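Fig. S4 source data, part A: sequence.
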Amino acid sequence: MDKLAQLDHQYVWHPFTQMKDWLASKPIVITDGKGAVLNDVHGREYLDANSSIWTNLHGHKHPKINAAIQAQLEKISHSSALGFANEPASLLAEKLVTAANAIYDFGLTIDESSDKSARQSPIVNRKSQKVFFSDDGSTAMEVALKLCYEVERRVHKTPEPKFLSLEGAYHGDTVGAVSLGHIDLFHKAYGGLLFKSDKVMAPYCYRCPYNRAEPERADAREYRKCNWECVGKVEETFVERQKAGSRYAGFIFEPLMQGAAGMIPQPDGWLNRVAEIARSYQTLLIADEVMTGFGRMGDRQDACPTLFASHKENVQPDFLCVAKGLTGGYLPMAATVTTQEVFDAFLGEYDEFKTFFHGHSFTGNQLGASAALASLEILHSAESISARAALEKILGEELKSLWALEQVGDIRQVGLVVGIELVKDWKTREPFALSERAGIRVCEAMAKRGVLTRPVGSVIVLMPPYCTTKEQVGKMVSAVRESIAEVFGTE
């Protein structure tokens, strides 16, 4: 074992990692990378098949982002946002607000034809106007949570604001964000630290108890047989809250796909329907786009350009939380984009103490903001838009070969995110127990084939950088196919 691996074993504690297993293995030590390729300390090459845990958009060592950071280094690396402004953060805030309002230029609409006799007020969609910078996805969610909580208390005089999120929700690891989550494996141990939030059924077509369809060799969303019971459950939850004499301050969701829940996609139309329900009960929408933002979920099919998954369903959130890909995967930076109405609830005279008492030492960091500005410029370029569309199509074609494997139960693709759910038998949907380490074993076999990713339970994740070539996509999918065959003895 090389010296760096020894030092890692001796001193480093890794996140979401059973360290007993880690210490029994020889770690891959990454030293450099370019494009979709990573290199280890021994000079071996690997494809970065999950964009370095869902962050890297354009590939490693991108010349435009490198140049932007280097240019900023010649000026200043960081100055405080407590009492001072800076150039790149100000420019970035403007760009984020513009991107967050993109669909208004193309006529944002929400269908108001359904019966709302039991609901309270007209649906209002407000444009984004303000940006609060922070450090990562958890802190972006923490900011949204605190802002929403205080708006409900100050404007609507609700003494104890309540929040609603989805079954299987994961929104980060700070205490507030954990309180919004509903994955026992991640959250149950901290129950004594948390406030209570309500949960409601999330769409999971492959394992939905209301889906009457027998398993087929296709994405379960395509052959489902149901009556949108998952939407009905959301409406019932809001009705019950209203009957109890209160309402929800905020409805929190990952748009189009729940990541840590197992790359579980929502069927077309679900988000628009439930957002309309929440709006009609005067509940603010908190969109967790930490994983789904910046083109990761693909583009709309019309002429409306958008970087955010919410916009694909004509949903305009009151709080848009972004991180991960914000800087192209280069530096830790996050943002919570919100409305003028939220901002105004914190305005007052000094001695009223309406200030938002929350902050981060590296808020609006110049290096991160410079990287983000360069990343946004790349994302809006015709070359990048075309490359993303082509990559999405290539990925979909390559994935078809996996249906031949008995252990592949469902293949879920939304844009440039793929979840491949492993089962014991696709005809019965029988799951693997977590203790069987099905996903981990397949990913370990993929690493031996030069492809790196990390599973979510028994779901293999593919989330390639946007620069990934057709040949590299082919190698990624081949590694999945060969590794499944190896692990389950079907070679």
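Fig. S4 source data, part B ends here. The first strand starts at residue 30 and ends at 34.
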